[in-house]
Structure formats: C-alpha cells, structure tokens
Amino acid sequence: MTAIALSDVTKRYGSVHALDGVDLTVERGGIVALLGPNGAGKTTTFELLLDLARPTSGRVEVLGGPPAAARGRVGAMLQSAGLPEQVTVRELVRLVGRAFPRAVPVDDVLARVALTDRAGRTVTTLSGGERQRLLLALALVGEPELLLLDEPTAAMDVVSRRSFWAQARAAVGHGATVLFATHDMTEAAQVADRVLVVARGRLLADGTPAELMGEDDLEDVFLALTEETSAAHPEGAVR
Amino acid sequence: MSTHAVPDRRVPAPTTAPSARSAPDDVVHARPTGGGTGLLALQVVTEVRASLRSPEFAVGAVVIPVILYAMFGLTNAASLLPGGTRIGLAMLLSLSCYGVVTLAIVVFGEDVAKDRGRGWLRTLRATPFPTWAYLAGKLGAALVHTLLIALTMAVLAATAGGVHLAAPQWAAYAALMLAGVVLFAPLGFAIAYLARPRTAAVVANVVFLPLAFASGFFIPLSELPDVMGDLARYLPTYHFGQLVYRALLPAQDVEAFTGAATGPATVHVAWVVGSAVVLTAAALLAARREAVTRRG
Hints:
The complex is a heterodimer of chains A (239) and B (296).
Chain A: E1 2-13, E2 16-27, E3 30-35, H1 42-49, E4 57-62, E5 74-77, H2 89-99, H3 106-112, H4 128-140, E6 146-150, H5 158-173, E7 177-182, H6 185-191, E8 194-199, E9 202-207, H7 209-213, H8 218-232
Parallel strand pairs in A: 3-7, 3-8, 5-6, 6-7
Antiparallel strand pairs in A: 1-2, 1-4, 8-9
Chain B: H1 35-52, H2 55-73, H3 87-117, H4 120-125, H5 131-159, H6 167-194, H7 200-214, H8 226-232, H9 236-248, H10 251-258, H11 265-295
Helix pairs in contact in B: 1-5, 2-3, 2-5, 3-5, 3-6, 3-7, 3-9, 5-6, 6-9, 6-11, 9-11
C-alpha cells in the first residue's frame, strides 16, 4: 500500500525550480526522513502533499488519491504553522478534532503529547516546545494514516524531542506513516527507518540510515552528496 | 574532505517522460465528526470565549460605544427633537450603528488578518477544517457580541437615558444591529484579505473613521462641510444609519437629527445590500487569489 507517490514532479516559482523531476514512493508504515539543506525543496514537497500548492507538472498522490481527497486522513505540522492566541489548548484540540471524520478523544491526545497539565492554558502562555507539542496534538487528533512533519522538533529541548519521537513511533505502531523534514542528520539517523536526501529540488539518495552511511558519518555523506549537486548546478536557489 | 560514493542508493536523474498533472482534486470528502453544524457551533463558542479573554477586545468593541453613549448620549438625553423624540434615543441609535460597524471591521478586518499573518489560516488549510466554518464562526461570534453591545446600550438608555420603547421596537433595534454586523462583515473580510496582515488594523481605521464621521454617526451632517453631506450619499454606512433611524424615529426627527433629508427606504436598502454584495465578491476574489497564488 502506497502512502505517498510523486511521479516526475516539478514545481517552479517563476524561474526557480523548487522541485525538479522528483520521483518518490513511500509505502505505508515507518518513519521516513526528508533530509536537505535550506532551499532543498522539503517544504515545497510538503505543500504539494497537503494540497497547499500544486505541481507545475507531474503527479502527486497521497494515500492512493489526490492530496485534497486525503485531507481528513492526514495530520500535518507545518514549518510556518501558527496558532490563535487566546484559545486554550483543550479548546483548540477539540475544535480541530471536530473537523476530522474520526477524532481521538481530546484527553487522550493531550496525554500523548504531555500537555494534560496545560489543557486550560491559552496558547500565549505556552513555551516554544509546548507550542510544537500542541501542533503535534493537532496533527494527531484526527487519527491520521499519514503524518507530515516539517522540521517538527526545531524548538524542542532534548526531553521534549525524545517524547515527540516516542509519540511518532507510537503512531507508526498504530499503522501510520510518518514523513518528516529535518536539517538534523543525527536525528534522521536515529529516528528514521529510511532517509531521503534532497538538494536543489532533486532527490539525491534514498536508503536506510545504515545503507547511506556505510562506515561513514551521515553528516559526511550528506555533505558529499549536496556539495556534488552544488558543483553540478551552481545556478539559482530553491525554496 | 573525503567523498562518499553511495551509488547503490543514489536516485537516478529525473526522466523527461511526459508528465500528467494531478488528477482533479477539488473535492474534499472529509466529513466533520458531529457534522458541519456542530463544528460551526463549537467554532462560535470558541471564538466568543477567546474574545472575552482579550480585555482590549472588550474595551474596543463593546465598552467604547457604551462609554461614548454615557458621555454624549446621556448628557442631553431628555432634550426633544421637533417630532418629540428624545435625544437619548437618537444618540442610542447613532452610537449603536458606530459600535456595530466597528465590530464588523475589527472582527473581520483585524482579527482575520492577524490569523492570516500568524499562519493559523495556513495551519487550518492543512486540515479538513472548512474555511466557511472558520468565517461563519467569526460571524457568529460577532453576532453574539452585537447582542451584548445592543443589550448593554439599551439597558443604559432605558435606565439612565429615560428611553422608552415598546417591546417590538426594542426587538427591531436588536434585529437591525444584527443585520448591520452581517452586512458590514464583508467590508472587514475584504480588508483582511486585501491588506497586509500587519497593516490591517491601520487600514481598518483609515477606512472606518472617515466612514463613521461622513455618515453622521458622531456629528449631524448639517454641521459638517457640504462636501461631507454630498459624500455621505455614496456611503453604505450612511444608508444603514438612515434605515435604523427611519425604523424607530419619525421622518421629521431623522432629518432634524442627521441634518439630511431621508430618501426612500428602498434606496437605503439597495445601497447597503448592494455594497455588501460587492464587498463580499471582492473579499472572495482576494481570498481566492491568495489561495491560487499560494498553490501556484
């Protein structure tokens, strides 16, 4: 069963190629890391998968159909995600959960992201890490089959990060697929079952962390791959 | 630095095979738990609660019209217009119009623009939460706040201003205020999508304050320069005010209080409803433009 399928997908913003002929298939289950430098095309990939953008050419499928049709079955944490201010954690999770065809009970979701004791707090009083966990709660509340997480742990401390990935792994245990974008090679190596390396809108490598690294450090592999691409395509940056 | 060859896992260069665009995907099949009505009701409740946690909202939207009425409406409340209407009633109507139109612009202009700017609308677009439910929830909350404004001002007018109306007239007053927020919400909605999020509050005030003055909400048009009176006839807020005055005051007192001759009700209705339709279309186009630009 395929969770994500991109077939020769190109996305251009003016003269900039954000994605350049990407072919990618992700089967259901497991955690997949999308690793790449700034401007590699990671966020664009997420926007296409969430129907926030449409490809210039190529085909995008999510859970076997067009992205818009899968919206109720996908949970997402976006890099530039925002939250309303004077709403409490509980109110927000309940409200967003109501929009999904099936929703996890609010208390269960809050417990999973360790926000039970913050349930009555308004968003403005939350720390950066707590906001990230709230965004994860919003992503989880619809019992998603696919979780799309764009740099989800950027504002988290070590404890929150571990807890976060424990929850993501638990979601996988319940049958979900996780695709997350990150700059953090250590995190990708530790968490992901599969790593996709992207740069300048192209998919450069695809494998398990062990396969990609061999006897080397993933950071060295990553730098070697992305530097090769930079040398081959010195023109223009991408999102 | 050493180089690392990973040829076995490296992805082949993209092919140039003919590509097909994504299949038509404008249908979202997700159905909210509890249905659309339940989602809308929850959105209204959440919005009302959130707004009540913002003291500046309560002050700006609810308290200011009440204070203005206490300051300017009650001072000469017992004075009579030529047709026998108490000034307290006429001021109640004009400042209620001011409060309601302010509310519509604040809620839909500033509040929606803020949500847009901070990325909340983008977050929602990645969920099955329908945009119509978000906007309808804002409108529902605005209706609740309108009732709060109308009730507070009515109680003040009746107790301190000696304003006495029959029950059907109070009901008409409340209904007109509710209609006002619905009809002027598209103006705020248009500002929310046409202005940059950070400037929406300024734009809303730049739009609204001249509207309020030129429509005679604060000062009778006869006491303003002639050009303001000429301008007023092209403003939906002026026509809304005229409809409200006409519903509860004799025509003679409407003219005396506003300094402008009243026209046929159909003209006022046409202006208010017509402008609402045009502004709704402009706002929808702006919202669509943003979505399309975003999607590429």
